[in-house]
């Protein structure tokens, strides 16, 4: 391998035990001499050996945590009690120099670990964040210490190179022309969706960036078409971007909770008659409530026929692309304009790690247009060619690609494909279990690893079904053995499991059903829900 | 301390060495049985003992890195060479199950560390990101593994409590009514500035969120007043929000690079005559190019008199509030409406950790308005009262407060105050050094820890000053002993040092001047810059 270290002409090489030894020459400093800094506190806080001791304290606790496969969900604690517990761990004589105390750190870490949702436990079936692959956390640790902001190549060389490599690796499953697509990382799916919509807005309305929305007087009003189950971040983006969240044109879904292309056309026509100019269509892969995949292939036809930018919010489901078994759910992905892909969901890395793909590189440059001499170079060269600062929202950006690239480098795609395939099979298995239980109602066939259902025991009044599910979900949460979520399906609450943990089996799900039944029966006895 | 663990009624407690032992009951699973998952790859990737070994590999390298006080800047590498080096570290038989190989991880970490800017070295004087306090990286490691998204209390209890505590702790230096201010964390200063401006926009134009900018037909056009040295993220926010970046009203600066309040009034009057409705004034504390602090006290008067929202971009300089010596730079801060504060700059934590403060809590709710049944609860309770999901842009948000709170809990504010005071004194010291060197030009008295200057040796033509500074900066970067930046001051490039590392002394700065002189003299000999 290439040797990257240049020679150090100063030959200043301390023995490694005396942090300030490099300041030896500081005696020639001017008044208020900077060489006279003799802070025991700073010396200690930046001491490398202390860093190792602190790391060992933390690693021992994390190892124990990762080795604990007991079934547990969440220990929900009254915030007031937790505030007191946290305050008790703080240096009380704040103005004094506090000597480092290992017990304090250990207590902080213990409290932190045990008050979180236990995402590595088989009791966790709740949301779309996951127990990370431990190695991805280890690399993220390196990022936290070496602190390389990755919007600019010179500040973070390996992260920028890793982004380029991961873009190529993942595009192999999307199928765009390797010479003309683009990818940037950004801080979460909401920001990726906003960035794509911004680029679409600027393309459709070239004066918008400079002149703003109020300059569009007399023109049709910009609007965005979405599936009715679109993630809230898309409506939020419309509000942020000056489009207006009332200018979302909501397309009806079919019985599989997908955008119904046939019924979409008249809705789009009606929007146009109301004076709206729909410039973008947002599809989901899959939706947040039930994990449905919109029919990208058909929607691409619709988008082409009406000159719409087709953006896919694949925050949750884009990862299915790496599986030979499941890739077909995103059939047509090569025809879309942009794609949001959260690696911190189904690629099992620490959050955030969101990848925003564009079919055409020029579109990736259309979101932001900026000059700032302290970060942007007027004359690009081979080093600035990899900069993403003009394409992503952030100025300082975490090198979020490193955990994903490292997992990919070490394990290849097999790790991801195997885990995703297991989780989706598991959702199918538990769906079959539910179909065999007459007191449970299934609401959809799981397309991925998300499943919604309701507990509807005999005696439950129809008008109480909604509140009953919410109360069961809260009861399960408080009991702390399992963590599940809830969502409205057709405006009535449902219980929701998201299978993110490969240590969950259908046997654990059966235990959950038992707990739901007990909670529900208890609620029926205590309240007036029963007829 | 309170015991938070609830009892586990299932008594499923594996011995901790066999990850899948909790699946013992899985034999009763349905077809495609989920209990039959027997992936060696997954078993290995989630093995707790392997996690410890990987952590030890990484900690040893980071310890060595932190103990190395040699003078070094950046080893700038051709991206093509680095791509090859990174590719060589990847599993080649990607479809096969790769056995974990410690050497591969070690090589990745070595390459990652050595290709970054050496922020913990005295050679680093370059930008506004810092060598983190090692303990903050250690806690960030916990965050990376336990993965608690912090927009919602139930998903991240301690981080939400830590946010509440840090809000109170830091507001003690701002001075707002503890009962009515608010703080949220968000992913970087750019996003915080956008969020504040969004809230200001929504307050001034109540229909904007729903109806969008094109509904403002016939009204005055929204505009934002800024100091001429405002960070590029504010202009970017105007473009994003549908205000239009041409609707920035740039206020002139005085000789100290601060907004000149007297000259601001006629500029605002002229903007009004052009049909602009200025609704917000953005001040800087300090500015990115030179670290100037706008006069907040006077600007608050101007804002009150014209009913403007006064937002302060204190990404860099708000941290000076924790120092008794330096707090006066932000005199008047208690009168502003909102404040962006990057802890990942002058509080020395991993990026991102941005705090956005609002004087009035209601304003913190004005940025976003959203319904989503899978995350937001219709009926708030004591647990959802701490949720920030309605106040910050992100849905999944890193628990970025934990490194800051932990440093504050362990060391108190003394650590921050001492380091910041040292860095600001150092900038003053090196300014005095430059004043004694006739071939260097000083451009401003440093208000904080940022200093811009030019090397102007005899024989340099005036028309070449700009290019000469850029070339020197690049030469220093390539030589790799020091890392500094450049910025345009009055449209002519200047060299810029940002003192972020307390291991830098004025002696190191003298070495840098020597290197600048050598580089400059060499350039003068080789090129046509000299008369």
UniProtKB/TrEMBL annotation, chains A, B:
Region annotation (Disordered) maps to: 1-34
Q: Which Pfam families match?
A: Pyridoxal_deC
The answer on whether this UniProt entry bears the keyword Disulfide bond reads no
Q: Which domain of life is it from?
A: Bacteria
Which UniProt keywords are present, listed alphabetically? Decarboxylase, Lyase, Pyridoxal phosphate
**Does the UniProt entry include the keyword Lyase?**
yes
Q: Which coenzymes or cofactors are required?
A: pyridoxal 5'-phosphate
Xref: Gene3D superfamilies: 3.90.1150.170, Type I PLP-dependent aspartate aminotransferase-like (Major domain) (3.40.640.10)
Q: Which family does the entry's similarity section mention? A: Belongs to the group II decarboxylase family.
Protein name, entry field: Pyridoxal phosphate-dependent decarboxylase family protein
């Amino acid at each position: 391998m290439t040797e990257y270290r240049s020679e150090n002409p100063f030959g200043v090489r301390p023995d490694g035990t005396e942090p300030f030894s490099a300041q030896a020459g500081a005696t020639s400093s001017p008044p208020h001499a900077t060489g006279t800094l003799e802070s025991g506190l700073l010396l200690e806080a930046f001491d490398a050996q202390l860093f190792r001791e602190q790391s060992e304290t933390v690693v021992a606790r994390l190892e124990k945590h990762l080795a604990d496969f007991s079934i547990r969900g969440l220990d929900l604690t009254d915030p007031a009690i937790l505030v007191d517990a946290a305050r008790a761990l703080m240096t009380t004589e704040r103005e004094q120099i506090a000597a480092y105390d290992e017990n304090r750190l250990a207590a902080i870490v213990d409290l932190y670990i045990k008050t979180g949702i236990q995402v590595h436990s088989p009791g966790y079936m709740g949301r779309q964040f996951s127990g990370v692959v431990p190695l991805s956390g280890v690399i993220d640790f390196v990022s936290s210490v070496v602190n390389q902001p990755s919007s600019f190549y010179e500040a973070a060389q390996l992260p920028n190179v890793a982004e380029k490599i991961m873009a190529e690796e993942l595009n192999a499953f999307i199928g765009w022309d390797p010479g003309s697509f683009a990818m940037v990382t950004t801080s979460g799916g909401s920001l990726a969706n906003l960035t794509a919509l911004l680029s679409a807005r600027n393309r459709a309305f070239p004066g918008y960036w400079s002149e703003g929305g109020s300059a569009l007087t007399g023109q049709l009003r910009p609007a965005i078409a979405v599936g009715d189950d679109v993630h809230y971040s898309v409506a939020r983006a419309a509000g942020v971007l000056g489009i207006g969240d009332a200018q979302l044109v909501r397309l009806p879904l079919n019985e599989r909770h997908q955008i119904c292309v046939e019924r979409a056309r008249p809705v789009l026509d009606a929007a146009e008659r109301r004076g709206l100019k729909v410039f973008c269509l947002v599809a989901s892969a899959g939706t947040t409530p039930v994990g449905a995949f919109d029919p990208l292939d058909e929607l691409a036809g619709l988008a082409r026929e009406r000159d719409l930018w087709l953006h896919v919010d694949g925050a949750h489901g884009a990862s299915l692309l790496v599986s030979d078994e499941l890739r077909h759910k995103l059939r047509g992905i090569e025809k879309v304009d942009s794609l949001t892909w959260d690696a911190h969901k189904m690629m099992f890395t620490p959050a955030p790690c969101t990848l925003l793909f564009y079919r055409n590189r020029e579109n990736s440059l259309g979101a932001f247009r900026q000059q700032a001499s302290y970060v942007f170079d007027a004359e690009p060269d081979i080093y600035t060619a990899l900069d993403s600062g003009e394409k992503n929202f952030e100025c300082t950006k975490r090198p979020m690609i490193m955990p994903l690239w490292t997992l990919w480098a070490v394990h290849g795609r097999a790790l991801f494909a195997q885990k995703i395939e297991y989780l989706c099979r598991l959702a199918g298995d538990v769906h079959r279990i539910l179909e065999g239980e007459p007191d449970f109602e299934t609401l959809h066939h799981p397309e991925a690893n998300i499943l919604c259902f309701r507990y509807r025991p005999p005696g439950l009044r129809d008008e109480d079904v909604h509140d009953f599910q919410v109360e069961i979900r809260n009861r399960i949460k408080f009991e702390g053995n399992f963590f599940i979520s809830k969502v409205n399906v057709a405006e009535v609450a449902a219980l929701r499991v998201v299978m993110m943990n490969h240590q969950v089996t259908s046997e654990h799900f059966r235990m959950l059903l038992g707990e739901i039944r007990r909670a529900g029966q208890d609620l029926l006895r205590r309240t007036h829900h029963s007829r």
